[in-house]
Amino acid sequence: MKRLFIGGLCASALVMTGCAQNEPSQPTAVAEAVQQQLSSGIEFANFDTTVRPQDDFYSYVNGTWLKTSEIPADRTSSGAFYDLREKARDDVKVIVEDLAAKPNLKAGSDEQKVGDLYRSFMDTDKVNQLGLAPLKPELATIDAIDSKAGVVAYFAHSQTIGAGTPLAFYINVDAKDSERYATHIWQAGLSLPDRDYYFNDEARFVKLREGFLAHMEKMFTLAGVANPAESAKTVMAIETELAKGHWTRVESRDSEKRYNKYQTAELSKLASHIDWAAYLKTIGGDSQSDIIINQPSYIETLDKVVANTSVSDWKTYLTWNLLTAYSGMLSQEFDSENFEFFARQLNGQEQQKERWKRGVALVSDNLGEVVGKVYVDKHFPAEAKARMKELVENLRKAYAVSIDQLEWMSPETKVKAKEKLAAFTPKIGYPDQWEDYSALTIESDDLVGNVMRSATLAHTKDLEKLGGPIRRYEWHMTPQTVNAYYSPVMNEIVFPAAILQPPFFNMNADDAVNYGGIGAVIGHEMGHGFDDQGSRYDKDGNLKNWWTESDLQAFQKRGSALVAQYDGYQVFDDLHVNGKLTLGENIGDLSGATIAYKAYKMSLEGKPAPIIDDLSGDQRFFIGWGQIWRGKYKEQALRNRVATDPHSPSHFRANGPLSNMTEFYSSFDVKEGDAMYLPAEKRVKIW
User: pTM higher than 0.85 for the full model?
Assistant: First the structure.
């Protein structure tokens, strides 16, 4: 079960995750358009030439698609990332269903586990017959709790079986000693997307809270819990109190403020009503003398909630967390009710995904590298990996040149920056060492048990890291994942195989579009090593300042200008982008586009770029950039993203960096008065 924690401590990811037609009347023109796509990698059919690129480049490149495409009823978004994820899922479906259809697979083999896990999810007759029965042993355990120590111990146990808890315990590299693993705790315990959902008095949030209460009441009713309405109010009251102590997402981005190391023997001074001995023994952290608490003031809040909440009310809360975590694996009535609130009401999703889609996702989540091995063999040619290695090194060279050319950075800091750049470890396609699932038992008629055992094994494997060497071979995304990430504590950039496809990477397209696509993605992930948080880590992954004071001030001044720029982007009449929340990703996007452009120009070695489809090389580069951000969202889903996602919406990810790049102005003749225009003194250049 792969887990990727959000936040500069662990990783910065690139993203937060046919129909019939009439016969064409102009077959020759269509054939020519197809040939254009093959030669340039540009999707001309998506263009809207009624929009001037100088005013809205994103809509110029993607406007016809935006007008004519529809978000599938079982999704809340669509676009380049999301459509490629659908393709990857379809590819994985073939792999999974092929294994599931094979008879007499060797018991305990990886193939048997994939097939039986999928079968256990797809056997709806069995799932419906069992109803709530698979959870009854855990529900009985909760019911037997008779003390606050028992409550706190169950916080720990709940996490080990994949259910919610007010404390998110995890193992990661110690940010100030990158050669050791440390235990960490992150704030948790909320069902709604963010703390503000519990307090905001706008009508939309009031309605969501009412819907959440109604949903919990229905779930408790289905589970046969006495006084379901009161039980729902109890959970809401506890979560609201927890939310009061949660740091905002902007506060939780701060790597330095999050690094708070405590001796485990002294945790009672921070929170005296939490039985830390019971918690750490159950979670497996009792062997460690210290622990890193990311949000200490939240722990103080939790301490008060533990003290002021009865054991009976905590049992209601724990019951809710178990029900909501496993509702999608219970009988139809639980599954449907979970969908109605969390998917339909909260995010605007119109219909539940077909069961096979969810089954394939379940297998990828729990046996991802088993599937990944087959996926790589079928869908990731060796030449693609070789080409990616070349592109990564070209981007690295361009970044070094860019650092040398920075006017605002001193020679002393430039040396440190280039040392860090040289130390980047790129991982491309798939891991060199695959995950071992031999200890996992999967049974074809035990869906809930399968998922619980998978969660427990993942937790056990995390604990095994303590005291051992850093596992630099480990990946936190599977090969079939359409995404990429940078880890500051490992100083590594990771590109799974599935993202290395059009429109991001096209082996048959010209270099300009590939540099604008996957080149910018590479540059984006490199950029996270030098964003407002990643820049705090040195070449070895330690949270250690390597900047002169004047250089740091100059860097922060540029970051503040970027915050102000993105704060001005309007998503809806009543909603703007949060420039502080998205700063790291916006620096990544700006750096990605800037460095990829420089790398593309360097690749020409002084020769003129060819004109293809009446477009210059520079124009094709920027079009390649614009088309990878193609995307549209359900309104509810987009509002949730703006509140919680450190990435800006697609429109601004495409246009924002270009408004700061003088090279874009000359490529598309952008002048004062055009909507994309920024005065030279307001254009932000960081790297």
Answer: yes
